[in-house]
Amino acid sequence: MLKNLKMNNVGPAPVMELEFGDRLNLLTGDNGLGKSFLLDIAWWALTRKWPAQVNGKLTAGKKALPSGPGEASIAFSVGTATGDQYVSRFDRLDQAWTGRPGRPANPGLVLYAMADGSFAVWDPARNYWRTGKDGDVQERLPAYVFSPGEVWNGLHSRDHRPLCNGLVMDWSGWQKENGQTFKYLCGALRVLSPSESKPIIPGELTRISLDDARDIPTLRMPYGQDVPVLHASAGMRRIIALAYVLTWTWDEHLKASRLLDAPPTDQVIFLIDEIESHLHPRWQRRIIRSVLNVMNALRESASVQLIGTTHSPLVLASVEPLFDEHTDAWFDLDLEPHDNGAPWVMLRKRPFVRRGDAAMWLTSDAFDLGSARSLEAENVLNEATSALTDEDFDTERARQLDVQLRAVLSDTDPFWMRWRYVSEKKGWLP
User: Fold this and answer.
1) Domain boundaries defined on the chain
2) Could you give the CA distance from residue 392 to residue 33 in angstroms, rounded to a whole number?
3) Domain 2-362 classified CATH 3.40.50?
4) What is the per-residue pLDDT across 253-309, written as a single tens digit (0 to 9) for each?
């Protein structure tokens, strides 16, 4: 498992340091403060390759560069028996990160789900550097990195060798064989479903075009129809892509382990950007628990570490029953004024305080909103709150506020009742 990361002169802050929990790690913060960047760094630390370095089709996952003049470094450690610390420094002449030679420590399987639908996979049985008499030789692929289209239609090497058939062809082939791999896929889909009453179930294979000879997998919808996966909603497509990539990775890992005469791994690290992306609130309440449990559908003894970013207060509320301070961590990025007055990014590991519901999370340090209401309602309420304690508040303005409050508050809102009582007592309202 990834134990820690420390960056100097890399990214949006002069120094950023994270001590990860062994199981669940959540990152929050406003857009543009570095959440996705931190996942890229985590992937690189675990695999020693940047996603876009492996697949040039990606628009994200680019190599990190120093943020200013001077030395830039990335230090990290992976949960090995020796607990070794790795330090890489940026060589400006070579424009490369240099440091300790040798193969990466074995973190088990590493899956990175990017927000745009790209995926990256690192498998110790297939992507480890080979050790020869002259040292480490990078003869194997450093990772399997899929653009969004390649997840569905297949991945090829730079010399056009097929590396993966893609979701459409693999799923249909597995379903026709009805063997163990299809059972793995069905198990992953079941665990990742939005609810127990609405499981994701494969339907019958179908054709969708006279010009497409492929048998297309379908999803059996709650209303009884089989919908081709290519026509599924954005939320469904993201979840079934995650289930497929995990199933494909595990199936290929088992085959490679047999060829190496080595036991399959017992651990997996999920890096997931915007884990709630495209998902209905009902699904957001289950997704963290589902991802933590999905590997057990493939291997019961598996140990999972999840490092994910989120903008969802419902996701944070949903983890309250399962958050354990001994195995889990919450990190928050904020833009704050520096001593010289200029804004800078601060990364903090915050104590996880249970707040009871999603609305309370909106006004927490995770999102920093003044209220869980609309912006218009918040502005009116702020003025109305001040008016209640102002003995000389203008009567005409108070009546205008009353009209505005009627437009943004429900009849049973506690503030509305208080406003009406004080307004009548002060004679603002007839």
Assistant:
1) 2-362, 375-426
2) 44
3) yes
4) 999 999 999 999 999 999 999 999 999 999 999 999 999 999 888 888 889 999 999
